[in-house]
Specification:
The chain is mainly α. The protein has a domain of 66 residues. It is built from five helices and no strands.
């Protein structure tokens, strides 16, 4: 198997694939005369939705809230977003970016440094 084929195999599902599968699922349910609205509005459906909502909130509060807040505030905002904004302002003002300032320079003429 080539490297490209391996990468394609390990890629996972894209958002478009998920949307297409959702559309096909709705068509299949329609073919079998399943009314999604009545299923969702039924007491059993409401109970299931309530259970999933409560369980999701419990998992969020107990396990996910602190790590996600850390990743968002301390990693994404502090490291990536602030430097992105700083460099966009530098580009707007016609100044060199941090990357351009840190890059090594090489003389283009035949002169010695």
């Amino acid at each position: 198997m080539t490297n490209i084929a391996k990468k394609e195999k390990n890629r996972g599902m894209s958002l478009i694939r998920i949307l297409i599968l959702g559309f096909i699922l709705i068509l299949v349910l329609s073919y079998f005369k399943v009314d999604i609205k009545s299923v969702v509005e039924s007491p059993e459906g409401q109970g299931n939705i309530s259970y999933v909502k409560e369980t999701s909130m419990t998992i969020w509060q107990a396990y996910l809230k602190k790590p996600v807040a850390y990743l968002w505030n301390d990693i994404f905002i502090e490291i990536f977003w602030k430097s992105f904004i700083l460099n966009m302002e530098r580009i707007r003002d016609g100044k060199p970016t941090n990357f351009e300032e840190a890059a090594p320079t090489m003389p283009l003429t035949g002169t010695k440094p």
